[in-house]
Design brief:
By secondary structure, the chain is an alpha+beta fold. It has helices at 27-39, 42-48, 53-67, 88-107, 109-119, and strands spanning 17-20, 23-25, 72-75, 83-86. This is Molybdenum-pterin-binding protein MopA.
């Protein structure tokens, strides 16, 4: 999975997308999905992002409710141990968000430089 693009001395645009019905997707939810994909655990992802476990579940639940289907799959513990992974929808959300973020940053270099110059 692709991570957030990093650039030197350039402001990075991280969009928030409002899809109606109270559904919004932005950097926080996407970073959480990325961490879940990497760590295979909501609890570990929450720790990595320094957010409470309950807040992580609330963010996941808001996506599940907004899309009407789950963005993560959890498996119970047991002999092989439990875990969490992204559903196809969860994977697609991260992929599409990454593509949008990359395109916005690539297309807005002039505007980003102008904003950056205001801070210098």
């Amino acid at each position: 999975m692709q991570s957030t693009p990093k650039t030197n001395n350039v402001i990075l645009v991280r969009p928030r997308i409002y899809l109606g019905k109270g559904l919004a997707i932005g950097p926080g939810k996407i970073d959480l999905l990325r961490a879940i994909a990497e760590l295979k655990s909501i609890a570990a992802a929450a720790r990595k992002l320094s957010i409470p476990y309950k807040r992580a579940w609330a963010l996941i639940d808001s996506l599940n409710q907004g899309f009407g289907k789950p963005v993560v799959e959890t498996t119970s513990g047991g002999k092989g141990g439990g875990g969490t992974s992204l559903t196809l929808l969860g994977q697609q959300l991260v992929e599409k968000y990454d593509a949008l973020e990359i395109r916005l940053n690539a297309q807005a270099t002039e505007e980003l430089a102008a904003v950056r110059a205001l801070a210098d």
